[in-house]
Amino acid sequence: MNGVHDMGGMHGFGSVDVDDDAAFHDEWEKAVFAVEKLLRYQSIYGVDEKRHALERLDPVTYLETSYFERWALGSEKLLLETDTISEGEFVSAIEDHDGTGLFDHEHAESDASDDDLVDLVNEAFRADAAYDREPVEPQFEAGADVVVRNDHPDGHTRCPRYARRAQGTIEAVQGTYAVPDEVAHGNEAAEPLYSVRFEASELWNDDTDGDAVYIDLWERYLRPTETSTGNELQEA
Amino acid sequence: MVHDHTHDGHDHDHGHADPAGDPDDLKSRTRALQSLLLEKDLISMASINEVLELFETEVGPMNGARVVARAWSDPDFKSRLLEDANDALDGFDFGIGQQHLSVVENTPETHNAVVCTLCSCYPWSLLGLPPTWYKSPQYRSRIVREPRAVLSEFGVDLDDSVDVEVWDSSSEIRYMVLPQRPPGTDGLDEAELVEQVTRDAMIGVERLGADD
Lengths: 236, 212
Prior knowledge:
The complex is a heterodimer of chains A (236) and B (212). Chain A is an alpha+beta fold and 236 residues long. Chain A has two domains: 27-126, Orthogonal Bundle (Cyclin A, domain 1), CATH 1.10.472; 145-235, SH3 type barrels, CATH 2.30.30. Chain A contains nine helices and five strands. Chain A has a five-stranded antiparallel beta sheet. In chain A, α1 runs parallel beside α4 and α2 crosses α4 (67-81). The two termini of chain A are 22 Å apart. Chain B is built from eleven helices and four strands; from the N terminus they run ααααααββαααββαα. β4 (212-218) of chain A pairs parallel with β3 (163-168) of chain B, so a sheet runs across the interface.
């Protein structure tokens, strides 16, 4: 979806706060992070659904909130959408709450020895990324020139807007990976994934001080340069 | 949106007197949600503490630094690392799972930097959790278009003869930069070289041993 999360190349945000270096600023952020991991480890939702939930925040909210505030909003949204919690019990929980944070309680140092979730955390943390997808024969090989399709899906995609319609060169064929555009919406699909090199001038014309950008793109985002149906001629 | 629904059929005239129960305040709402998840046994304090312990102590730039130091010391390892990072890293025992990883090499001709313009993807198994600036709109929006300007904000001023190449982490592959070995480190062994490596150099926003 063409959301404000897709910010590569946008102007106006100002200089990078290079001194804002910490991963967390306070215990509230730590709690949001840890809770989100626990929900994901229990497969209450997946990483693609989580990313898409943040993208679906309204654009003003997205830009007004901090990184972990967006995570908190995303968890809330997905817990409700997956019926893990009901609207009614959430409202009651808010009304009944005493205002304390997780780390304010005496049970903050609770015993890990009889807690299945602790085992699950360790298992998930130590698990390697999965490589078990059925290989799909790639359409492009390293060195091939490709053009990024000018698609504007309203669902989740990992094809950044700034790459669309640009011509690049396949740097590497990375293997077969699950397609986030499908997985975020509860479908399964796997396709060849490519690292594609773009000359900076192809992406930004003269308005760049860089030389090249590499982006990982799934096969469905790409077309060969030779192809020239009427539609694609217009794109090119 | 939740804070719309929460107004339905409820009076919230106590909202200001009782910020703990204010549905419009995200932080208090989140705390209430966490209490609900505790009740439902979807989270526990022990598991929360375990998550934080693992991410704050078992991963961090010390993992990436060991990889970099070995690449500087062992040319064979370096070529395997650049060819197939996951395979090369099998020899390390970080006690953590591996992400899909790819390592890109800085040379006198090319400087690399890593970003995730769409969210905040980061090689946490090698570098730990990302700093806030890495996740910021400023860094995400600008490094792909004006990397030299961004690098100069980090104190890195590159000669025009050096190409700047940026890796946008749009898939599940996580990129890490192999910095150039700093000058004057010829006599150091692998353990001493580890000390030379910084997190920022492995993201690509620092040049080791540079004057700037």
